Amino acid sequence: MSEIVIERMTCRYGAGAPAVDTLDLRVGDGEFIALLGPSGCGKTTTLRCIAGLEQPSAGRIAIGGQLVADGSDRWSVPADKRGLGMVFQSYALWPHMRVSANVAYPLKVRGSKDDIPAQVRSALALVGMEGFGDRAVSDLSGGQQQRVALARALASRPHVLLLDEPLSNLDAGLRTYMRRELRRIHREVRTTCVYVTHDQLEAATLSDRIAVMRAGRLQQLGTPREIFESPATAWVAEFVGFDNFVPGAVTQVDNDTALVQPPGWPTALRARTVASARVQPGRGAVVAFRSSSLQQSPLDTANRIDATVTERMFLGDQTELTLAAHGARLVAKVPGARLEGETSLSLWLRPEQAVVLPEAV
Asked: Which residues form the ABC transporter domain (predicted)?
């Protein structure tokens, strides 16, 4: 069993605001969870506390039912005694060693009594690097070095694997390939994984659940679909790609939708409500939606938005339109070069693709 339980963990550097503030998080046995957020939000500090590289100021961490850190008395199991595997952003490979020596090094340090060469071959095969054992690390590409770092972390068959932005130094095509490889490897080994990233696509494609962090605090925890389709706050919505936010007053709340009247608009907007984001009639709210949710549809009066095009940007297979609508600035994406000559548009917002949230960005 390799469940990770973090209870009310705080981690401070000096006298300023905590890097991690009263975090509660449970990672299930064999689960792949992503810590997602902007730089400085506390995700890497959380990972380092799990690894034993940082000491929590308060709170507790347990791995596999065993307490490994207690901030109340500054007690912690050393990092090398936790039996974890870790992949760093910089790969942290020894350039003077061969590939096989890099993978074998942590096994030798831990005094493994198993057949180390066999473990090395098995780990390299798992990441698709068979036959590379005698190669110099300096002769490898960035993607190959990343896979060697992953093989080194997996060689000891850890129950928990920690990954700190391991794909950030790769080009876009190689990142896509390595995302597929990481999913394949996780399906094979079923190791509990905690993955730090600021890339929303990485988090969505790799993880079973996503923990969104901001300023040291957990903002939302859920499946990728829950995070991307039903964000709990306007900040989370903006971070995961919602780019239109229309403020207004809630005039009606039904079972799973609400009606919001933006000031100065001739009609109200209907959108989905989110269970974790309570909205009430008479209170202020914001209707959040993506630029792809606006469609040209002059026939439908419900959720109709009349707008003027103020700017166009060609994006290859799409054109991004900047719009002025009753004093609000909106963004819409349309296929190719459609609506090239249009200056005034009547657009339709699909209610199921917009959410009502109780706060502004």
From this structure: 4-240
Q: 30-43, pLDDT tens digit by residue?
A: 999 999 999 999 99
* Identity of the amino acid at 296: Q
Domain span including residue 263: 234-358
| Residues 145 and 201 grouped into a single domain | yes
Provide the pLDDT for residue 118: 92
> Could you please report the per-residue DSSP string of 193-239?
EEEEES-HHHHHHH-SEEEEEETTEEEEEE-HHHHHHS-SSHHHHHH
Is the C-alpha dihedral spanning 291, 292, 295, 296 positive or negative?
A: positive
CATH code for the domain in which residue 166 is found: 3.40.50.300
Q: For 285-332, write each residue's pLDDT tens digit.
A: 999 999 999 987 656 678 999 999 999 888 888 889 999 999 999 999
Radius of gyration of the chain measured on its C-alpha atoms: 24
End of a domain among 229, 263, 296? 229
142-154 vs 99-109: helix crossing angle, rounded to 10: 20
Distance (Å, rounded) from C-alpha 227 to C-alpha 115?
44
Same domain, 176 and 263: no
Q: What is the pLDDT of residue 218?
A: 98
Please identify which residue in the block is written with the tokens 């929590």: 56
108 falls in which pLDDT band (50, 70, 90)? Answer: confident
Q: Domain check: are 238 and 115 in the same one?
A: no
Residues 215 and 277 in one domain: no
Q: Taking residues 68-84, what's their average pLDDT?
A: 92
Count of structural domains, the chain: 2
Q: How far apart are CA 179 and CA 34, in angstroms?
A: 13
